[in-house]
């Protein structure tokens, strides 16, 4: 039954009211969620970037130029057989140091002793003939003076005496030659040095002109250190010298320091002793040589080492850490901090690489502050939070320059420049 008096029909208006309120609830929830999402997606508030700065200084900076070099014996002597004959034995230990005058090889002396004996016999015969000729001349002279003998007899006696003298001189030369050949059977070292391995074995027959090479002896003290510089590097240094950006010591008195393969420094320092006046047509490089004392024989011929040349100076140079220099689309730049602790971008011209630093040729002045650490977070004209101030990179040391491209933070061994060659080129 149904009708207005039944209770089950009374809540119908409430259900309709609830249904009317549902769309309103959904609208409120949607607006709340949209407002929350919009607020979350907005950019966060920017804070002052934290950086460290450095005050730029300009001062004369000593420069150390590094390059790859190779050691060479100052005297490399071939030990050769000077006469033909059989090799008896080797008397030195291969690879050991030898002294000047030390016997290294012995050849069979018997044939040479016999040749010497023959030469001495010939000399004795010629000396006897000379004695007879002299006595004959002594008898002929007074008789010729008394005209008891003809002038022809006197001339013959004088000629015979002169021939006998010449024969004696020739025989003496043969004796000296035989003595020399006998002496050559004992082969000695002409200098103090390091002996190489033997090229010939005991019992070999040696021919002086072809198979006479026996070994080498290398003088170790002093030792030479050779390095090369390319034509481009030469021109680069000449340009810097002309522009006053680089100064070499008087008379090119550079000091050469050698760094071994493990990075240790060789205790003896050297000096430039030779610069080739011409470029090599094979490599297009310019050879420079330094000479170093090597009393203990630490350096051996053929070693690859690092040579550091000191003595050059960059006047009024500005040196900044590499991490302070950023690469832009067209050039390098740094962030310069003003008095209000705001940063402005400044284009700079970078020069040579120097360890972890760069020489700045143009764009910075002494007294200006630049951002070193945190430069990647800097925004133009935004106040900075300066966390610390770094000391100048020029304080307390020399700059080790490795020649290379301005955009390359590191330079290869083949592109490192050398000061002595540039000095020699400038003088040319």
From TrEMBL:
Residue stretches making up the Multidrug resistance protein MdtA-like barrel-sandwich hybrid domain: 75-210
Domain of life: Bacteria
Region (Disordered): 393-428
SUPFAM superfamilies noted in UniProt: HlyD-like secretion proteins
Residue ranges of domain Multidrug resistance protein MdtA-like C-terminal permuted SH3 in the record: 316-375
Coiled-coil stretches noted in the UniProt entry, renumbered to this chain: none
Subcellular location: Cell envelope
Protein's recorded name: Efflux RND transporter periplasmic adaptor subunit
